């Protein structure tokens, strides 16, 4: 006999339960950048295969600071835990440099995995790190990053928790060095390779032609890398495309428009910009469960 939960169970069984499972299937994975619980819940309900917790956006949203190595492990793992527990879509989380040396990397891997992330991104920048599309980035010796990756692979409790190795060498040391590092990080055990900020389609094509592991393309509007269509990225050979800035740039523009109306006219009564319907937002935040609970358990008899 078919039960009321059959259709939901069937839908769940068809949807990949991990990023690793999704990578075993064909097609480009496009992951929106999420940076707080509102962005995460909106994206979670839209059918994406993966969400990307952007370090830039999370630090900006949580601390109001630049993505320049100012957020601590404690700051970030708390955000990972909140987003992972508040959503059902596999979450890729930015882990910066691992927040220190090898012992810190070990602790970071264990913390992010326990918090519920599906994958962690580690980069080979010196501390303090900087956003990959801003100037002044410096990288550690390749051998040091190789050791970090080996520690990361050893620290995880499940191979379903994926290690993403990012190199920022392209901007200061050139593409040849970035590819040399990418190859070494793949050999060290990284599941996914992220060559940050290539500066042309030709460079992106060369990256995909050279590296044998799944590759990430970082699509930052206004950044150093050309923003390409999904079809173009897939044809080059990328498996994952992340869009870390799109959400918070759109949010900031929308807020500026709405708040500008209030500033100019003293009210939102005549605002004609798009607003998320308040009843829908209330449901998105889970108020229906609150209302149902209060019916079953009233404070007074």
TrEMBL record:
E.C. numbers: 2.7.8.23, 4.1.3.-
Listed Polar residues bias regions: 1-15
One example GO MF annotation: carboxyvinyl-carboxyphosphonate phosphorylmutase activity
Coiled coil: none
Superkingdom per UniProt: Bacteria
Annotated CDD domains: ICL_PEPM (cd00377)
Annotated region described as Disordered, given as residue ranges: 1-22
Keyword terms, alphabetized: Lyase, Plasmid, Transferase
UniProt keyword RNA-binding, yes or no: no
InterPro entries noted in UniProt: ICL/PEPM (IPR039556), Pyrv/PenolPyrv_kinase-like_dom (IPR015813), Pyrv_kinase-like_dom_sf (IPR040442)
Pfam families: PEP_mutase (PF13714)
Keyword Lyase: yes
Protein name: Isocitrate lyase-family protein,putative carboxyvinyl-carboxyphosphonate phosphorylmutase
Lineage: Bacteria, Pseudomonadati, Pseudomonadota, Alphaproteobacteria, Rhodospirillales
